[in-house]
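Private note to self, pasted from the team thread so I don't lose it. Backbone tokens:
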């Protein structure tokens, strides 16, 4: 789970469009445009690029480890918090259960654990983001205003989540109090 302080801190913000396109298209090509988790493809577009991050919760550094292809359904599960704020959690839970061979309770427990982890990480605002993998692997050059853009995106995403959760108040009360604590 990406801590709230780092929402928007992604390759799309930090790199020139041509670098990001090169990296994401390479991920699609490596998987034959199939999902790395379930092997499937989406109905409207086959796959989406998912950035894999490792977390150092002590030093609060999020480090990019790679980019892979996921079908839209698996991508929705990966971005669990966003999926919940958009009210798509029922379908995503069902898909999580099916792909992992779990029952509904097991999937729901996994979702709750993820939210707990997100909550713990989001208590801190001093997270740093390390994208050196993209620079090393693809000779990508970070753009000058990347950090400014990432911060703008962060504010936008936080606002969107607050609005959505506000609109859906009562349906997702268990995350209502989590968002906007910064
Ligand atoms: Zn999939």
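Design output:
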């Amino acid at each position: 789970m990406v801590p709230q302080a780092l929402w928007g801190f992604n390759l799309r913000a930090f790199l020139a469009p041509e670098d990001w396109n090169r990296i994401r298209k390479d991920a699609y090509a490596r998987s034959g445009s199939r999902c790395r988790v379930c092997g499937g493809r989406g109905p409207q577009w086959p796959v989406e690029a998912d950035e894999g991050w490792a977390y150092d919760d002590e030093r609060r550094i999020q480090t990019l480890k790679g980019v892979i292809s996921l079908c839209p359904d698996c991508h929705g599960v990966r971005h669990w918090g966003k999926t919940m704020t958009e009210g798509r959690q029922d379908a995503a839970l069902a898909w999580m259960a099916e792909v992992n061979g779990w029952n509904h309770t097991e999937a729901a427990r996994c979702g709750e654990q993820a939210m707990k982890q997100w909550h713990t990480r989001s208590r801190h605002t001093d997270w740093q983001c390390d994208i050196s993998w993209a620079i090393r692997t693809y000779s990508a050059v970070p753009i000058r205003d990347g950090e400014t853009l990432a911060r703008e995106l962060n504010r936008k995403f936080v606002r969107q989540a607050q609005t959505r959760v506000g609109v859906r108040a009562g349906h997702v009360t268990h995350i209502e109090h989590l968002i906007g604590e910064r």
